[in-house]
Amino acid sequence: MEYKITTPCTAQDLAPLKAGDTVLLSGVVYTARDQAHKRMMEALDKGETLPFALEGSAIYYVGPTPERPGEVIGSAGPTTSGRMDAMSPRLLDLGNKIMIGKGKRDAAVKDAVVRNGAVYLAALGGAGALMAKSVQTLEVIAWPDLGCEAVRRLTVQDMPLTVVLDAHGGDLYEEGPAAYLAAR
């Protein structure tokens, strides 16, 4: 199935999604990689406010390359999501609803996805130029000293993504190979 989803999202918005579905995501998406996640954890530990509201948010694990003249963003391919696994359950418990990246996630993230009615979506690795075409606006909103890992607010239109983890416990990385082997 193909779904059009607009951020911010609720658990009800994401409930119909199943592992393997295609999502065309529109709205605001925040970028945050390893270093930004570490700073968010430090801020939370100190009782400080995060640079964006987590409730219903989408976080894309990307460190985009500099844009060329006339472009909004450079190449914007996903980074390996597993590097955020230790920090993702806390953000999900605080309201984050969509994580975007590539690669498998650990059991704690899978449990947090189900517990919070969230999803993990895969962006096409190696297709950063394709992902960049969906970005309409970009604004650095926190920690510019992190360079490409600074937190950015992106406005996206129909960003093509695939549901990997759904709110019902579905996992495309488990179900996809199993379906392939069963069909052989």
From TrEMBL:
Describe the family membership recorded for this protein in Swiss-Prot or TrEMBL. Answer: Belongs to the class-I fumarase family.
NCBIfam families given for it? PRK06842.1 (NF005310), ttdB_fumA_fumB (TIGR00723)
Among Pfam families, the record links this protein to: Fumerase_C (PF05683)
Tell me the keywords, alphabetical order. Answer: Lyase
**Protein name per Swiss-Prot or TrEMBL:** Fe-S-containing hydro-lyase
Q: Which parts of the sequence belong to the Fe-S hydro-lyase tartrate dehydratase beta-type catalytic domain?
A: 6-175
The record's listing under InterPro entries reads: Fe-S_hydro-lyase_TtdB-typ_cat, Fe-S_hydroAse_TtdB_cat_sf
What SUPFAM superfamilies does the annotation carry?
FumA C-terminal domain-like
Task: Point out the coiled-coil segments of this chain.
Answer: none
